[in-house]
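Tutorial, part two.
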Amino acid sequence: MPQDDHTDRLVEIACDESGSEGEKLIGGNTGVFAHASVHLPMESAAACIREARDRIRSPAEEYKATHFLREKHRPVLKWLLAPGGPIHGNASVYLTDKKFFVITKLVDLLDEEPEPAHDMAATLYGGGETAFGRDRWNAFLQSFNDLIRAKTSTDSFFALADTLRTETDGLPAKIMNSLYEARPQVTAYLSRIHEPPRTPILDPLIPAITQAVRRWGQGGKLISIVHDEQTALTEDRITQLRTLFDHPPRPSGTRLISLRLADSRRDTRIQVADFLAGIARKITSNEIANQGDQELTELLKPYIDASSIWGDTRTRPLLGLPATRPRP
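Running the prediction step on this input gives:
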């Protein structure tokens, strides 16, 4: 009897990102990280790019999201995202609000139960700047970012936490006090994560790929990923990702059976993922900055993964995200 090769369960997706700065999430060039995944045959992706070239008519050798985002090419951007367009129903984008992601990792140091920790993160995200002042709050978040990256000292970080907890009142200050009192366990945690080989705790790429596997693997699919070349995706990290789905928390049957890196110039599917990631990052960044474009945001909404890590309560409904923020 022939062995079942599971080809009916195999799904290959192509992925790319926009806004990646590794673990530098505070004080970098972008506030949003976007990771796009597409499920298209190579021929369909190539046809999409040919059509975009015919419409945009730029002499550029490789098209990027910026070509679509120019105002004179707005009709082409609308064509790309519209219902019935070349990627509708076959693409998804997972967003990470970098500041909120950092705050969730900060609150994780308190070793609270998930629900209280979630509430604390929301409190700090929404009220930290008001309670402590923009400059001091951003300096503190950057210090934490640098602490996890082993680029500042524990003493410097806790000196800032001490200032915030003693010079203000309210719930954000109480959370700072809890953090300050947790210094021994924080120090022990840092010792563990800084031991080689170091795990990139704050790199949003790994959670994004994990969610892409879950999203496309619903129903017990076997997922194969071709990803744009990324130095963060070392052989060890690819092995860790595959192991995660070999032993899932629940026996869903979903597995990551392969993840290989490819040059986007040689894989049209990755180029399409690059378009979507860059477009999504720009549109959602504009929304956070109160410079949103309602028409474009509405077109983007069907592509946004509901599990995106997004802290801003004002823009969550605009992006079609549920009111309750998921934990990373």
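The CA atoms of residues 36 and 112 lie 32 Å apart. In part three we will examine how such features are distributed along the chain.
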